[in-house]
Each structure stands twice: as structure tokens, then as C-alpha cells.
Amino acid sequence: MQEIFSILSDNWILLLVGQYPKGPLGGLAMTLVLSILGLLLAFPLGVLLGLARLSPITWLSAPSIALIYIVRGVPLVMFIFWVYFFLPALIGRTVSGFATMLVTLVVYQAAYIAEIVRAGIEGLPKGQHEASRALGLNYTQTTFKVILPQALYNMVPAMVSQFVSTIKETSLGYVISVNELTFAASQVNNSLLTKPFQVFIILAGIYFLLCFSLTQLARHLELEITKKRAGINSLIPKAITS
Amino acid sequence: MIIDGVLIMFWLTLLAWTLAMLVGVLLALMRMTNNRVAKIFVASYVEYHQNVPMLVQIFLWYFGVATLLPVQLQHWLNANQSEFIFAFIAVGLAMGAYISEDIRGGIRSIPKSQFEAARALGLSYIKTSRLVVLPQALRIALPTLVSHSVLLFKNTSLAMTIGVAELTYATREIESQSFRTIEVYFFSTATYLVISMLIMAFGQFLEHHLRIHSR
Amino acid sequence: MIVFHEVDKWYKPDFHALKNIHGVVQKGEVIVVCGPSGSGKSTLIRTVNRLEEIQGGKIELDGQDIYSPNLDINKFRSSIGFVFQSFNLFPHLSAAENIMLAPTNVQGMSKVTARQRALEMLDRVGLASKADSYPGQLSGGQQQRVAIARALVLAPPVMLFDEPTSALDPELIGEVLQVIKSLARDGMTMMCVTHEMNFAREVADKVWFLDAGQLIESSTPDNFFNHAQSERAQKFLADLRSH
Description:
- The structure holds three protein chains of three kinds.
- By secondary structure, chain A is mainly α.
- Chain A has helices at 2-17, 27-54, 58-73, 76-91, 97-122, 126-134, 139-170, 181-192, 196-228.
- Chain A has a single domain, classed as Orthogonal Bundle (MetI-like fold).
- Chain B is mainly alpha-helical.
- Chain B has one domain (2-210): MetI-like (MetI-like fold).
- By secondary structure, chain C is of the alpha/beta class.
- Chain C has a domain at 90-155.
- In chain C, 38% of the residues lie in helices and 25% in strands.
- Chain C is built from nine helices and ten strands.
- Classes of the chains: A mainly alpha, B mainly alpha, C alpha/beta.
- Chains B and C meet through helix 6 and helix 7 of B and helix 2 and helix 3 of C.
């Protein structure tokens, strides 16, 4: 225990922000930047993908279904390597580890968000769509003014859950030497060499505190929304952690 | 080398999955008892494994726990593919948490009246669980169990970070040695995709085969 | 056969569900238990097979205290047939399998014998052709009859019915009551909670009227329906008739 505290007090800056300000941002800060940025960018993409998937227009739905299946069927590590090798070739210049990781996360998360959107939309009572059309609104108006606002509200707990998943996924940045929390911890371990258990327990502890609090938030939100919507027969997409 | 990678991936998945199932059922049963200690233990176990990244868990086992073991055991492990062993233990124990939650969800969705009817017939608690509650609970939990099985399969790829020569590791090795990047990546990606889809298809088959008949 | 001695039951935190119930069910008697909702009638019969626990008094089955420490609860329960309002058949098992479950697992019967007995019981309730159908494929009335067969196959000396027809569509009630009536005619000791007053008139030896946890009246059907003593019973009967 004593050792854990001393390791923490010696290295907390490295774990928290990497070598900033003397170097690039790293550690937990980097993890959070990647996660937040990743989710923010993935969100609109995911919503569009989800709508495309549900669309009656085949040339929209088929590729989106294909993309979603591919993302769900291939490990994240493989994706990271794909982007690592092929993105530079695609855009003609070198890509930093950070950018690689970000792109991978955005695409990966977008697929999962698309499924959350789908669940959110399909969980609404059918009557909503019908009532809107009966009033004369067309499909697009119905989708954006009636369906989506409700679905998005219901989706909030699942989105928080997805944020937790993203945070956990950033740890894979380690594989391409992105200086996020796990990489920072491994650096600490490499310099200390004799206390691996303590270092990694600290690492696990930090993730746990962060993710557990967010998961509890998600559960709380789920309860609140269920209570608010208790009158209507709608299904809240479960806050699933992947 | 690729074939070896596929085989190792296969064994890793099989062993981890078996461990996960055993752990999952055990935890679910523990949670069903009225023992407070058991319930707290299971809840903590589940929260830990669901909130710490899989990669970090693998590191903790391979780099951390390994150093805490008795020296004899460490020597034996080092001589006997410790990376593989720690990898499947880490993934199996972690996914066991998800499995136990799936089973728990399935059990909770069975109405209490089913339990009462069985007890009213004179069936003991254990017989009731085995013959009435679990068969129904597992059917309900099947879709999430299948998706978590796919997740487990994908998570085995993380073993590459500690040097297990499974498919992703082999892919990188070949790529760096032969520069046949696109081919090997396509092959491996396709392999993962096909197997994931097979698992999902098998799940669909099971769901259909085991479905509770109704009009 | 069944004796209730000063039976008291409370639900948490302080709801007094059964108040000082005294009653005797003789062997071969058919007792219909009725009363307004919330009166404790379901609770009362559920205490007999200990689906509900009592806090005061004593209940005896065939002379034995049902709370005696050396009582094997599972064996005890298998000696009482219980039929639920919502049938509670096991959806993942066929009709025959539902019926065979207890004999094979509680009474140690062989599967072959159990299936034979199950088919006999199904025949008894008029559903021999549905042996391999699943509950989801049967109508409510059919399901309830299978539930009765499931309880009967254990050859219990006593049958308890908790509002057996309340969850059924009107046109299906008759077939279930037929089965229960035939059991009564064959001399089965029964307690039946029900709102079906014509049924009570036809087969009951006694009617027990419960209100707010108390056993207010216990008399023959004729006396109860035509000469009810208490005010509450009279009100109850009046409400019933005004449909």
C-alpha cells in the first residue's frame, strides 16, 4: 500500500498529463481528449449511419448495414492497424498516432452509436410516426422533428455507457504508442521495473474510478428517464457496456 | 505462421469461453443465494471487470500478478507459455462477469409465479432452479450471451500485446517481414469477420431451435 | 382433514391479513371460499401449502401440524394439489412434460410410468390429444385444465383452487368448472376460492365468507345464499347479484 502511494506521488503528473507542458499531452488527459473528441465526432456520424440503416432506400441501408456488421465482427486492434497502415496511403501524408487512434475510434464508435440510434427509434411507439404522417408531415420532417428528438432523449443513458466504452477503448492506443494513460503507466513501469503489480493496480484503479462513476451516472439517468416516460409505452435502449 | 495464429486464436477463444461460462454461471448462482457476502463479492467482481479495460486487465495479470506468484510457479509458467495462460485467464474471468449479468437478467425476467408453481408441486429449490427457472432464463439470455461470445472472441486479439502469437500478432509479423500488407490484412480481417458471423449465425440457429412454442 | 386454529397472518409492515381464523374442512368436503377483494381468501388457501407463512395459530393437515420441524416441505407440498389463477404452466415444457415433472422429480417415478399417468390425467380433464402441445399453443381453458391435471397426477388427498376461472374468457369458464365439479363428485376434499356462485350452489358442502381477514360466516350454500346472517355477507351478495 505504502508503495502504491509513493509511486502515485512520484508519477502522478506523468500519468495525468504526460510530458505537458514540456512535451506533448499524455496520460489521463490524453485519454479524456481522445474519448471526448472521439465521441463528439462519432455522434453525428453514428446518427446518420443509424438513420441510413433504417432508411427504406436500399443504397443507403445496405452499405450501412455492411459497415456495422464489419465493425461488430472485427477486433478493434485490427482496425487500428488498418487505419495505421492505410490512412497515410489514402491521404498521402503521415498520420500521427493520435490522429490514427482518433479516426479509428470515430468509425468504430459510429457503428455502435448507429445501433443505439436504431434501438432508440425502434423503441418508440409506432403511433408517433403514424400521427405525424397523418398530420401531413413527410418522412424527413417526421424523422427530424418528431422521431429523432424523442429517440435521442431516450438514448442518453446508452450514450453515457458508450462514452465509458470509448474510454476503455483508448487504452488500445498503447499498441501504436499513443501517449494515453495505459502507455504512460507502462512507461512508469519500465522505469521502475520492480513494481509492476503496483503500477498496474494504480492504472486499473484510475480507469475503474472514472468508468464506474460514469456507469453509475448512466444508470441514474436511465432510472430518471424511465420514470419520466412511464406514461408512454416506450423502450429505453439499455445502457450496455461493451 | 498464419495457420498457427488461427489455431492459437481458436484455442484461446475456446478456453476463455469455457472459463467465462463456468465463472458466469457460478457468479449468477452465488448472487441468487441470500448470502450478503456472496452478493457483495459478485457485485464487486462484475463492476471491476466491466469498468477496467481488457488490455489493462491482461497487463495486470501478465506483468503484475505473475510477479506475486510463488517462484516455483513462475518458473513453471515461464517454461509453459505463460502468455497464453494469462491471456485466456484474463479474458475468461472478465467475460465471466458479463455472462453472469446476462444470466441474472434472464432469471429476473422469469415471473415469480413460475417459481411458486414449481414449489407448490413439491419441487425443491434446486430442482426448481434447474428444471423450471434456468431453462427459461437461458433462452431469454441467449441473444446477449451470443453477442458477448462474439466480444470474447474479439478480445482474444488483445493477447498479441503480451506476445501471444495469435492471428493479429501473426498478421503484423508477416506484414513486417514480407510487406504483403494488404493481402495479409485482408485475410485476417476476413477470418475474424467470418468467424464472428458464424458465431452469430449459430446463435440464431439456437434461438430458433430452442424457442418456446406458441401459436 | 384441514384444521385452522386461531390463524393469524400479517403482511409487512402492519397489515393484518388473516384474523383469528377458525375452521375445519372434513375429508371429502368441498368448501367454497368467497368474499370481497382484499378479504384474504387467496391468502387463506395459500397458507395451507405454506406459500404464505402464518405468524399466529396452527394449521393441521390430516392431524399433523404443517409447521412441525421434521416436516419435509417438498413432500408435504406434493401431497397438496394447488391450482393457480394464472395457471402458471411451464412454457418450455409440453403439456405432458408439465404433468410429468413432479412425479419424476419429487416422487421418484420412472419416466415411462410418469408419462402413462400424465396421459391418464390429460384424458381425465379431456385433453388427451394435447399431450405434446406447448402451453403457448393452448387456450386459457385448456391450459387451466392441464394445470389441474398437473396437480392431480400426484394423487393428493386435498386440492386447493385459487380463483381458477378468474383469468379466463367467459366462454372457457365452463370447461374448467366441469372438471372441478367432476372431481368434487368423485369425493375429492377441496377448498376453492371463486366468484362463481352457481358453481358454489351446485357442488359446495359449505361456503366460507371472508371479509377483511375474518371468517364471518360458514354455512351451507342454501343458508348462505338465501339466509345470509351478517350484514357484510348480505351486502356482498347484493353487489354480486346486481351485475
